[in-house]
Amino acid sequence: MTSRLKTLGEAGQAVWLDFVDRKFMDAGGLKKLVEEDGLTGVTSNPSIFEKAIGHSDAYDDQLQADLAAADTTVESAYEALAIKDIEDACDTLRPVYDRLDAKDGYVSIEVSPYLAMDTAPTIAAAKRLWATVDRPNLMVKIPGTDPGVPAIEEALTAGININVTLLFSIDAYKKVLEAYIAALEARVAKGEPIDRIASVASFFVSRIDGVIDKKIDALGTDEAKAVRGKVAIANAKLAYQHYLEVSASARWQALAEKGAQPQRLLWASTGTKDKAYSDVLYVETLIGRDTVNTMPPATMDAFRDHGETSNSLVSDIDDAEKVMNEAERLGLDLAGVTAQLVVDGVKSFADAADSLYGAVADKRIKFLGDKIDGFSADLPADLDAAVKDAIEKARKDGWSRKLWAGDASMWTGGDEGKWLGWLAAARGEQVDFDALAALGQEARKYKDVVLLGMGGSSLGPEVIGLILGSASGSPKLHALDSTDPGQVATVADAIDPANTLFIVSSKSGSTMEPELLRAYFFARCAQAVGEGQAGSRFVAVTDPGSKLEAAAKQDGFAHIFYGDKTIGGRYSVLSVFGMVPAAAIGIDVAGFFETVKTMAHSVGPDAPPASNPGFQLGAIMGAAAVAGRDKLTLVPSPTLKPFGSWLEQLLAESTGKQGKGIVPVDLEPLGDPADYGNDRVFVHLHLEGDEMSADHAKLDALKAVGQPIVTITLADKADIGQEFVRWEIATAVAGAVIGIDPFDQPDVEDAKIQTRQLIEAYEQSGHLDPETAFFEDGDFAFFAPKPVAGGDAVAILKAHFATAKPGDYAGFLAYIEREEKHEALIEQIRVDVRDAHKIATVAGFGPRFLHSTGQAYKGGPKDGIFLEITREPAQDIAIPGNRASFGTVQLAQARGDLDVLASRGQRVLRVHLKDEKSGLQALASALKVATQD
Ligand SMILES: O=P(O)(O)OC[C@H]1O[C@](O)(CO)[C@@H](O)[C@@H]1O
Predict the structure, then answer these.
(1) Is 866 within 8 Å of 811 (Cβ atoms)?
(2) Handedness of CA 496, 501, 507, 510 (dihedral sign)
(3) Same domain, yes or no, for 754 and 728?
(4) pLDDT digits (tens, 9 = 90+) for 292-303
(5) Is residue 726 domain-shared with residue 766, that is, in the same domain?
(6) Which of 594, 625, 654 is a domain's end point?
(7) Atom 14 of ligand 1 has which residue's CA nearest to it?
(8) Contact 590, 701 (CB under 8 A)
(9) What is the predicted ipTM?
(10) Nearest CA to 631 among 671, 571, 573, 687?
């Protein structure tokens, strides 16, 4: 028996299938429909692929094989899967296309629904899909939105077959038909053929009744009920009347004579949703010449079973008009409904795409295995719920796309969009791999590399140097980010200036410390190799047009590497600021980016927040900070211990402002559950193979009492580059959740100004402004804007920390040399204070931390209790061209810092150690006593 579906074809209506699925096609389902039911086309949309790919394993083999061949973005991974289905469908329909001489036999694939409101990217996507599939019976589907219409016209003009989707109103349809005609006319004007350009205008039917019928039910009157289930059909019939009118016009006839194919109306959304209606309602009522009905499988089965064909589309047109008039009289607002349906349609396809891309992103990460750093989170229920809310908000607002598009509305709506150059840098686009490889070769002639820079210009490269180390035969890296005379001397003594490459690194090119350090080391180098030769051993890394660039040119530096002004210092590690020093110690930067890119692909605009490693972490950090868990406590495994110093700056400078933000806690040894309050999130960064069983036991204990623990695992230390990307994205996201601009640093500037004033006064007078200790003994002198009561050092220290309350943190700001013995003593001090007061502790060496965590201490939450530590340097170092020595500058920095901290309402006390050698030990002992009992 002939299939009833074939009778539709006889009536001039093409039967298409609104469904794609690999298993169905592999089993020959599509071919069978072509052969037995006269099927002549296939349509797909994001919801269809979401059902096919997101909920089945039929695509896993291909995805795994694709990823093994080459990693790629989520969107490309998805497209490869979808395109394979579309190509197969095109090939199955190809005999139909050939038999009907291009009049039918088409298969549609939709451009990304995220683009529905963007003309230019839609055009680009249409062209890309057309070229990739490269089959004449492909149709690219573009929404008929206002921004979609010009894209449709341009794509058609370029010779691409177009299925216009999401049409609900006759007005929108009219514009689309006009665009089709204009495109054909444009081709004729250019002398291009038009006979094989095909287009359908997909008019959605049942969705209209879905909304209108609800309104009718709400009215509840008999006259309203009389048009129930009729408005969508009437609307479609009148659209067809417009088609007929235009087809009869002279303008169309002129094109038809040149072989133009009609742009067929395609009835979409023809599955019956309301069980009260016939399951073939939206097929039987809309049968007419030169149309298409694309049906979901169930509707197709129903029609095959009991559908009746008649010339329905052109019958009862008067009735259709009456229904429309009645709808208007009843105030059903069809115009408003159809406009809203477009918005809802775009949104529902975007939602489907979120779920589809999410499924692909999750599988991609699973199949990448240990090529991508692992991530898991154990969160208490309340935080877990807040994180899920933040993720859902981010998804609904399209943050992963907004971030990459530079849309500042996800933050404060300020100038955030101008500071996103680091995204391209994460894809390796800021650096010139060949130039870096050449530098790496050149640097092999040196024994050491000394990097002079602060904050973002030194911390990232230092982390790379410490974790990855120099390649064999390449120089050793010394990052110098201090004015501490002891620290400067340590580096100066460790190197031979004649056998050293100096990298002076400053984005702004005007930061005081690298300027002074450059003056010092340039003079030493000149002394060693002769005036005029020193420049050849110096490299500058700076943003174009900076003062450092001018100085480097003047002094004949060997190279100047230029940064990107749209990247802030703390986000600059994957630009020249991190990569020049990395190259200098022999790291293969191009190879390094292979692993970095895997993470960059994972956090792209096409990775929805729930499946995006950067957003997952950022949502946790942001939601936790908002809930008062604002002390992000890093627990690194031994090899990864240096990472925190880079991370501290990123988190603190980005989020710590307007009294809000995250206070990073690095290098505080893990304690027992009783040592912590409710203000922490622990992030365990683990390199497989690193031994830390004692810490694991402690983390398990913390987990057991409901402390939030995030675990990040690296299979190889070379994968540390992925963490730069993950944390940069996460920080930007956390900033959005917290509600601040993560790219400015408003409070660091104040300490710099304060310091400059002190130094300028010194340059004039030869001494720093006098200051008076409020208490002094043989070991210490204490300074504070408000003296702390107490008869001796222990009592003063005790009184200072006695103000601690839950949620506060103690900060130890040490303007002394950063070396092992000092680090160990500071660690001891931190543990004593933490265990005594149950508060988080942070520590920084000055002036290094000023360009890093200093922002959060000044601008972030006002719950810090700071102890600043200064000392009398045993040996000071003069700076060429300056009256002030390094020791004086450092002291001025400490004083400026203290003043600004105090002015921001933080509790501050400065202890000046009289004896450089024994002073810190004496302080640790005093604090031990002060924190006992
Ligand atoms: O690279 P530059 O311009 O010398 O800045 C160094 C550091 O100083 C800061 O501006 C803070 O003082 C950081 O943001 C930056 O990373």
Answers:
(1) yes
(2) positive
(3) no
(4) 999 999 999 999
(5) no
(6) 594
(7) 569
(8) no
(9) 0.93
(10) 671
